Amino acid sequence: MTTTLQEAPQALPRIVCQFSCGAASAVATKLALAEYGATHDVQIVNAFLANEHQDNRRFLADCEGWFGREIVQLRDEKYGADALEVFRRERFMKNRYGAACTKLLKRRLLDTWKQPGDIMVFGFTAEEADRLDDFRERNPDRPAIAPLIERGLGKDDCKAMVQRAGIELPFMTGWATRTPTASAA
User: Fold this and answer.
1) In angstroms, how far apart are the furthest CA atoms of the chain?
2) Closest among 33, 32, 59 to 46, alpha carbons compared
3) Of 26, 103, 125, 183, which has the fewest CB atoms closer than 10 Å, so is most exposed?
């Protein structure tokens, strides 16, 4: 028999939402808070990257208001949270194991913060079910949930939900969907 989180309240693992400053992770976090916020210690963490667009910080603050919770911002010290510094010092961008900046500025940082028994919440969308399968295959001892996949929500669904909440999408997300203007042509 499979035990769900609500069937085992005595265990009360920490629920850790990985917030990446995108619409999908925002909606996954909101759904996790709605489902587990009253019964579990729900933490929201963000790995700060110096190279991200500055509007991500505005989006993060707007989402803190939407969530009614603070987002813990982690910052790498070894590389100054700078992807270019990782490339310079490690002398490669990506190998068969992935991007060095993702590993060193996000995964390793989040790994030092997490606690045994934490259940990770990922903002993988319905289009990304294979990413969740890959994660679970590579990390059978790390419990993870993906509320967007569970509900069949895609990227466009997430963008619409964020906008309906009255939050402007982050610049880089909106940039990919903006229609060119006459002045840009």
Assistant:
1) 61
2) 59
3) 183
Sequence spans of domains, the chain: 12-172
Q: Assess contact for 23 and 155: CB atoms under 8 A.
A: yes
pLDDT of 101: 57
Residues 6+ apart with CB under 8 A from 7: none
Angle at 183 between CA 180 and CA 185, to 5 degrees: 60
Q: What angle do CA 131, 51, 112 make, to 5 degrees?
A: 60
In the prediction, which pLDDT does 105 show?
56
Per residue, the 3-state secondary structure of 70-101, as one string, reads CCEEEECCCCCCCHHHHHHHHCCCEECCEEHH
User: What's the pTM?
Assistant: 0.80
